């Protein structure tokens, strides 16, 4: 006795978008290359004073979502690769489903007197296997840092303060 099964589908299911490499790691250093996040008394040691702002329709908006692990759009990483600030540049929901390049601006406020600009380029692509959104380039205060100046070991770049 032979048993034959036939599976038919009239509709192609769209797979959800996959976000890949959406974060960047930043290490503020002094002119001698010392990691300022390690200085317990220094102006770059207090995560409470750091804020990320997403520029939405030309207006900076302070990032805070208590439901996320990185509620401020960033988090401190401290492991065997060193202490660094893991930042997630602005990526609007409207970019998903719209193939091509998406440029965004974010502001990183280190403390009450130091704020920097992060300009990011994301690329969205659709394929038969799903969709992807990839952070491809980052300019920090107008200087291209990612991927050009990234330390391959901990996927970070430094900024001199």
Please specify the SSE layout and strand pairing:
Layout: E1 17-20, E2 24-29, E3 51-56, E4 59-62, E5 74-79, E6 82-87, E7 100-111, E8 114-127, E9 130-140, E10 143-146, E11 156-160
Parallel strand pairs: 1-9, 2-11
Antiparallel strand pairs: 2-6, 3-4, 3-7, 5-6, 7-8, 8-9, 9-10
Q: Key terms for this structure?
A:
single chain; 161 residues; mainly beta; seven-stranded mixed β-sheet; four-stranded mixed β-sheet; 48% strand; globular
What assembly state would you assign to the polypeptide chains in this entry? single chain
Number of separate structural domains: 1
Q: Largest sheet, described in full?
A: 7 strands, mixed
The helix count comes to: 0
Radius of gyration (CA) equals 20 Å
Q: Briefly note the structural class of the backbone.
A: mainly beta
Q: Helix share of residues?
A: under 10%
Question: How would you describe what is shown here?
Answer:
The chain has 161 residues and is an all-beta fold. The chain has one domain (17-160). The protein is 0% helix and 48% strand. The protein contains no helices and 11 strands. Strands 1, 3, 4, 7, 8, 9 and 10 form a 7-stranded mixed sheet that branches. The protein has a 4-stranded mixed sheet with strand order 5-6-2-11, with no helix packed on it.
Outline of this structure?
The protein is mainly β. 0% of the residues lie in helices and 48% in strands. It is globular, with a radius of gyration of 20 Å.
